[in-house]
């Protein structure tokens, strides 16, 4: 599908290796934005998550960082033709990003394959494998570009999320909240949404779970409640 239509914007994806996915939609819909006046989306791809954040929090200053030239073509088009053309798009890797701004929230649907076999599509390899953005590099960027109370939101396969939490804990950061995702009730957890904070909070971390499809292969009430502001047919 070369275009994905949402309620308030559309995502053209002619060029980007990674298309609109349920992972990205889950992250953009789930991440808390109440205190996020300045947001940076790392590896924005088509611009999906940056656009979702801007829809949910129109007064927030949203920046989007992307290194892949093909993905940038789509992101630039999608932002320009959205209700929020003021989203600032940066053409670089986050390791080369240069900004005096300090963000309240860094959000990323990051590459997560460490050792799996790669295909012939090099752009897709960059988008899916940690060669271009390791977990440590993302955490380095989080440390550098966010405020002292900054937070980092990501979605990862469940097992990789455990490693990511260990790496964050080693830097004396804290798991603020998480949500484990199942595709159907009978399957194991396949994804996990994480919110990492630089400062500890008084209450224990909020551990949630969500199932996307029920036994009749229909969206669950929880999934509809989370994503109904975006999907056209919800």
TrEMBL record:
Any one cellular-component term (Gene Ontology): cytoplasm
Entry's Gene Ontology molecular function annotations: nucleic acid binding; tRNA (adenine-N6)-methyltransferase activity
Intracellular or extracellular location(s): Cytoplasm
Primary location group: cytoplasm
InterPro entries in the cross-refs: DNA_methylase_N6_adenine_CS, SAM-dependent_MTases_sf, Small_mtfrase_dom, tRNA_Adenine-N(6)_MTase, tRNA_adenine-N6_MeTrfase
Domain of life: Bacteria
Gene3D superfamilies xrefs: Vaccinia Virus protein VP39
Enzyme Commission number(s) of this protein: 2.1.1.223
Pfam families tied to this protein: MTS
Domain Methyltransferase small: 32-115
Keywords assigned: Cytoplasm, Methyltransferase, S-adenosyl-L-methionine, Transferase, tRNA processing
Catalytic activities: adenosine(37) in tRNA1(Val) + S-adenosyl-L-methionine = N(6)-methyladenosine(37) in tRNA1(Val) + S-adenosyl-L-homocysteine + H(+)
BP terms from Gene Ontology: methylation; tRNA processing
Purpose of the protein: Specifically methylates the adenine in position 37 of tRNA(1)(Val) (anticodon cmo5UAC).
Similarity comment text for this entry: Belongs to the methyltransferase superfamily. tRNA (adenine-N(6)-)-methyltransferase family.
Name recorded for this polypeptide: tRNA1(Val) (adenine(37)-N6)-methyltransferase
Organism: Pseudoalteromonas maricaloris
């Amino acid at each position: 599908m070369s275009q994905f239509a949402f309620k308030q914007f559309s995502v053209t994806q002619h060029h980007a290796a990674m298309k609109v996915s349920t992972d990205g939609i889950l992250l953009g819909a789930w991440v808390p934005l109440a205190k996020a006046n300045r947001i940076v989306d790392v590896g924005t791809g088509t611009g999906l998550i940056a656009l979702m954040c801007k829809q949910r929090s129109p007064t927030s200053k949203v920046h989007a960082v992307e290194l892949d030239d093909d993905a940038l073509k789509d992101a630039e088009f999608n932002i320009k033709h959205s209700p929020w053309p003021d989203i600032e798009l940066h053409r670089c890797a986050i390791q080369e990003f240069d900004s005096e701004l300090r963000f309240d929230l860094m959000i990323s649907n990051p590459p997560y394959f460490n050792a799996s076999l790669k295909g012939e599509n090099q752009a897709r390899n960059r988008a899916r494998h940690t060669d271009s953005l390791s977990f440590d590099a993302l955490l380095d960027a989080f440390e550098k570009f966010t405020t002292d109370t900054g937070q980092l939101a990501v979605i990862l396969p469940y097992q990789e999320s455990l490693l990511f939490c260990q790496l964050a804990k080693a830097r004396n950061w804290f798991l603020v909240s998480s949500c484990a995702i199942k595709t159907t009730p009978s399957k194991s957890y396949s994804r996990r949404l994480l919110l990492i904070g630089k400062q500890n909070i008084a209450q224990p971390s909020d551990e949630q779970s969500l199932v996307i499809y029920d036994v009749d292969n229909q969206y669950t009430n929880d999934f509809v409640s989370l994503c109904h502001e975006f999907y056209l047919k919800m």
